[in-house]
Amino acid sequence: MFQRGDAPQYYLSHHFIAPSGVMDPQCFLCWKVVPLLLLLPGRFWCMKVHILNEHPVHIIPGSKLVLTARIEKNPWEEVSTITWAREPETGQDRAKVTLATCPAKSPNCSGARPDVQMNLKQQETTLQINRYSIADSGEYSVTVIDRSGANTTGRCIVREYGTV
């Protein structure tokens, strides 16, 4: 049975001291190096992007569709490019259509169509389609790429509003 003071001694002897009674330097160094690796910028933190609209988004044809996404990143990461795209929700032909691509340094960008606009403010990006049509229904995605080339994607479904 362990007594009150035995557990820490057992833990230390089990993990840092070899059976010969000598401290195991390899194991000791591992426990010292691992916390330092966690402090390296941009290596163990993953940038994230979340579309803030409720899922799925229901919209009336002819109205304005506005999707907003929040970008979560650490202070050392720098966003280089943001791309909004759409693909059909179902069906065999799931070809992705790029709606707008924008370098992060530019706060406003035009899309692939005249009625599509994108902007970036601080940690948020917004896609706006001025005259939504049934053909605009599908799975929308926003992909954020950082300077190292790593990317992350947020997704949401947009459907035509139908009466219940």
TrEMBL record:
<dbReference type="InterPro" id="IPR007110">
    <property type="entry name" value="Ig-like_dom"/>
</dbReference>
<dbReference type="InterPro" id="IPR013783">
    <property type="entry name" value="Ig-like_fold"/>
</dbReference>
<dbReference type="InterPro" id="IPR036179">
    <property type="entry name" value="Ig-like_dom_sf"/>
</dbReference>
<protein>
    <recommendedName>
        <fullName>Ig-like domain-containing protein</fullName>
    </recommendedName>
</protein>
<feature type="domain" description="Ig-like">
    <location>
        <begin position="35"/>
        <end position="158"/>
    </location>
</feature>
